[in-house]
């Protein structure tokens, strides 16, 4: 038919056929790079399973993936892992598909943007047809076209997915003790657990045996408590930050004649020299650890981001500087509670990345940071309530850069999800352009990747 003749199999002497490497094929080096990137990922607590355990470096493949693992890879980690592999056109097409699934799985969806999502996924599928073989396009790929329309009729996807049912099925399977009577085992254990839980509601300060802590208790917990003395200079730096950013102090600073409250009196006495130090601290729906703790753990809970107002100047002689909000990225070195006798204030001592040369927005909107470029060492502290959790993934392109990925808080109220619904964080700040949809000069064969030799079967029936 004369379609993509460059991909035509080539018969060679010796009864074997050579299949050229298509544009979507990964070389062995790229497979190693892809798998090593995923093997080096450390995610926050509760974000997903341990990604490293799903990567098999010997055979260069992913194993034992569960449905939520596929969900996490598709929406967040896959676009980062393929940054250093595949031709740009193919890579951007896959990222567009990931961006689509990230958007439709958001907890907040603007109905006016559903038509735009519909148009974008149509373009994305056209690009996939341009680069991938017809065998790739089964009915499941086609069904993505109808997902925006389904959301318009049925509401957000997260209200209808089956993750909660799948998790509860695991609990019910754990009740089975006699495989010949699984239903009876499930009923007996379920009734027994319900009876114990019902009775425990009438016992004060009682905890049922064998029932693990709820996630809301784990998120708001603290660990690694100890009392440590700190030098006076560092204590003053933390204390000054508290004074400059506490709302009760602002009215007194502008009107000193105001009546001094008891809280201001205790703040004026300065905190005690001995601070309460933690290696783990839960607040605001996030669970944080110090950098030292993360170095010995399979999770990464020390990454933080804070949005602060800063003064911006175009040049050193700019006479009209402006104030604007700016994002700062860093890692937690210490978690302290400053003791003001009558109350305690939790603060994070962080190592911040210098925004002048350590932060950049790269291709497709990925935010990259250089954790080795330290910012102002005299501005280390923030309130624990101001922080938002992020985690860093080593850039597959190599070098000292890391890709920033955000997380969402787990907010609970007496075991039930609060009304404060956060947006599902996106892996980038923008959708890749589709300028190459009409580009006919696309190389369908990779010259930098080895092809496949297939031995002809000469066995007669």
Q: Can you describe what's shown?
A:
With 461 residues, the chain is of the alpha+beta class. Helices cover 30% and strands 21% of the residues. It is built from 13 helices and 20 strands. It has helices at 28-39, 67-81, 88-104, 114-131, 139-142, 147-154, 163-174, 182-200, 215-219, 232-245, 250-254, 262-268, 291-294, and strands at 10-12, 16-19, 55-56, 61-62, 222-223, 226-229, 274-278, 280-283, 286-289, 303-312, 322-339, 344-352, 359-361, 367-370, 381-383, 388-394, 401-406, 412-413, 416-417, 452-455. Strands 6, 7, 10, 11, 12, 13, 14, 15, 16 and 17 form a ten-stranded antiparallel β-sheet that branches. Strands 1-2-20 form a three-stranded antiparallel β-sheet, with no helix packed on it. A three-stranded antiparallel β-sheet has the order 5-8-9. Strand 18 (412-413) and strand 19 form a beta hairpin. Helix 3 (88-104) packs antiparallel against helix 4 (114-131) and helix 4 (114-131) runs antiparallel to helix 6. The protein is globular, with a radius of gyration of 28 Å. The protein starts with 9 loop residues before the first strand and ends in a 6-residue tail after the last strand. Residues 414-422 have low confidence and may be disordered.
